[in-house]
Amino acid sequence: MTGQPTVLITGASRGLGRELARQYAAAGWPVIACARAATAPDGEGIEHRQLDVADMGSIAALAAGLGGRPIDLLINNAGIRGDTGGLATIDPDDFLEVMRINALAPLLIVQALLPNLLAGERPIVANISSRAGSLAEGTLDDDDGDYAYRCSKAALNMATVKLAQDLRKHGIAVLSLHPGWVKTDMGGEGARIRVAESAIGLKAIIDGVGLADSGSFRAFDGKQVSW
To answer: Quick one: average pLDDT of 82-103?
Structure first.
């Protein structure tokens, strides 16, 4: 162990997760970059771990492989979008898969890695959510169908609040983060925010988080997002 704070990032093979791994490594953090395939970013300080967040066995294997290693920052970034067609095209299997990956998996990962977080010096759980999951703001600027995605991110926001309540006594801060409409495979061609810009903003927020901020919902530009 290096004595430096360690970050574990899910969904680190591409897009925002990949860029966050790169930036934390550049800042001197040991990075545990988790992905289904061994395609996470290369670089000094980046360690690859295989993880399928939809598979309980894979989550358990990750925890077992880490042993008692301290985790100072857990970034639950892995996610999928699912069907975007609206009410007419909702498919039960698709809907449940989106909910499982976007809302349930982060809870199960926290559950599995709680001993590692408790061993961290100033542990933080950062859930990559979306303003699309805000009941107040989620439909202000678009009319995409996205029933599964929006419901999953709303559920993740509630999970953030519940985790913040439960883990405060352990000194673990938990927050939801809106990365913006990012130019990734999920964001699509119309997205406005560069991946690096979003990652820089998110890292700045996380770096300044204290226990008093636990249970908050923040955008990459530092603004509070309404629930």
So the answer is: 96
CB 87 within 8 A of CB 145: yes
| CB-CB contact of 173 with 73 (8 Å) | no
Distance CA 116, CA 47 (A): 16
Q: What angle do CA 199, 8, 13 make, to 5 degrees?
A: 65
Nearest to 210 by CA among 162, 165, 168: 168
- Are 23 and 200 in contact, with CB atoms under 8 Å apart? yes
Could you count the other beta carbons within 10 Å of the beta carbon of residue 63? Answer: 17
List pLDDT tens digits, range 152-211.
999 999 999 999 999 999 999 999 999 987 766 555 556 678 899 999 999 999 999 999
Structure tokens at 59: 């989550």
CB 172 within 8 A of CB 110: no
- Put simply, whether the predicted model's pTM sits higher than 0.85 gets the answer yes
**Can you tell me the distance from the alpha carbon of 13 to that of 74, in angstroms, rounded to the nearest whole number?**
16
Task: Indicate which residues carry an active-site annotation.
Answer: 149
Beta bridge partners of 76: 127
